[in-house]
Write a structure and sequence with these properties.
By secondary structure, the chain is an alpha+beta fold. The protein folds into two domains: about 190 residues, Chemotaxis protein chec, CATH 3.40.1550; about 55 residues. Helices cover about 35% and strands about 25% of the residues. Strands 1, 2, 3, 4, 5, 6 and 7 form a seven-stranded antiparallel sheet that branches. Strand 10 and strand 11 form a beta hairpin. The longest helix is centred in the middle third of the chain and has 22 residues. It is flat. The protein starts with 6 loop residues before the first helix and ends with a strand.
Length: about 325
């Protein structure tokens, strides 16, 4: 049988607690705070899932193919440009945050913004200062190339003109290297020597780095092409697989067949002699032998429409006994 306290006993117990005659148990402190972790325990660390997911990007294997093609074509182009033997080697493609990447760049570094019109984005072409001064020495007639003294100064206007020619050369070869994968058009925009002046890319954004080791005479330098991953992601379908020679041949045959099929599509062509807008009331008054004045004079050219879209202008006439239109203007 359960033992129940009477009201008098409850009142006496509460009075004893308030007077301190009855001791109460203290709250136990949390176990983790009371004692340090044992040597065998595992410490927890903060893990940023958002940053981890943002940093993990799918590797675009076609960029390795493009990098290889660019190194070979650039080697020939630079050899002709400098009239010296140039050796170029490629390094593995890097996927890195832009903020971490610019920390690895020395100062000064020549950074050039290249706009890619069809791709609707931009690349950053970065030259080692040693490479720039080697090119300048060669262009200005030096017979020997030595390791130049790297100066933290701005380039002169004449030197920038030479740098722009070098960037234009890289743009041409880049377009050729990309051609089997995706057509791009590159054009020079501007140059900077301090990475912090380029704010088109956020420090947290992932970029793809193509790096080339360039050897001219006994001087070893480098060139890097920085491409924001967000821009490449818009054409990821073209970049996830490396194009083979068979794929390229099949793509060329498919394009020729598609082009041939397009030329056989039937189109409706009309020569519009003139137009006239009338009200219902005026239309009801039209009878036989009525004269309707159109918006086109007799000696004016008429519109020729293709699928109801005006494309040509010409004049009506007779050709070998048939009614014809002589084309005088092609409309955009």
């Amino acid at each position: 049988m359960e033992q129940l306290l009477s009201q008098a006993e409850i009142d006496a117990l509460l009075k004893g607690i308030s007077d301190g005659d009855v001791e109460t148990a203290k709250e136990a402190e949390p176990e983790a705070a009371a004692a340090p972790a044992s040597p065998g325990s595992v410490n927890a660390q903060v893990f940023d899932f958002a940053k981890y997911t943002k940093g993990r990007k799918e590797r675009l294997s076609a960029l390795e193919f493009i990098s290889d093609r660019l190194s070979k074509s650039l080697r020939s182009a630079l050899t002709l440009f400098l009239e010296r033997e140039v050796e170029i080697n490629i390094t593995p493609t890097q996927y890195i945050e832009y903020g971490d990447f610019i920390k690895t760049l020395p100062l000064p570094t020549n950074m050039n913004i290249v706009i890619t019109d069809i791709l609707k984005g931009f690349f950053i072409v970065i030259f080692d200062a040693k490479l720039i001064f080697c090119v300048l020495e060669t262009v200005f007639g030096s017979n020997t190339i030595t390791v130049p003294k790297i100066e933290g100064r701005e380039f002169t206007k004449i030197e920038f003109n030479v740098i722009k020619k070098l960037v234009d050369l890289v743009c041409v070869e880049t377009e050729k290297a990309w051609e089997p994968v995706y057509e791009i058009k590159c054009r020079y925009s501007r140059s900077e020597i301090n990475p912090n002046y380029i704010t088109m890319v956020s420090h947290e954004e992932t970029v793809v780095i193509l790096e080339f080791s360039i050897e001219i005479a006994d001087v070893v330098s480098w060139m890097k092409v920085c491409m924001p991953y967000g821009i490449l992601e818009t054409i990821k379908g073209y970049l996830v697989s490396t194009p083979s020679r068979e794929d390229m041949e099949m793509r060329a045959k498919w394009f020729q067949k598609l082009q041939s099929s397009m030329t056989e599509v039937p189109l409706e062509m009309k020569a519009v002699l003139g137009k006239k807008k009338v009200s219902v009331q005026e239309f009801l008054k039209i009878k036989r032998d009525s004269v309707i004045i159109t918006d086109t004079a007799v000696d004016e050219p008429i519109n020729v429409t293709i699928m109801d879209v005006p494309k040509l202008k010409g004049k009506m006439g007779i050709y070998r006994g048939n009614k014809a239109v002589r084309v005088e203007q092609i409309l955009n």
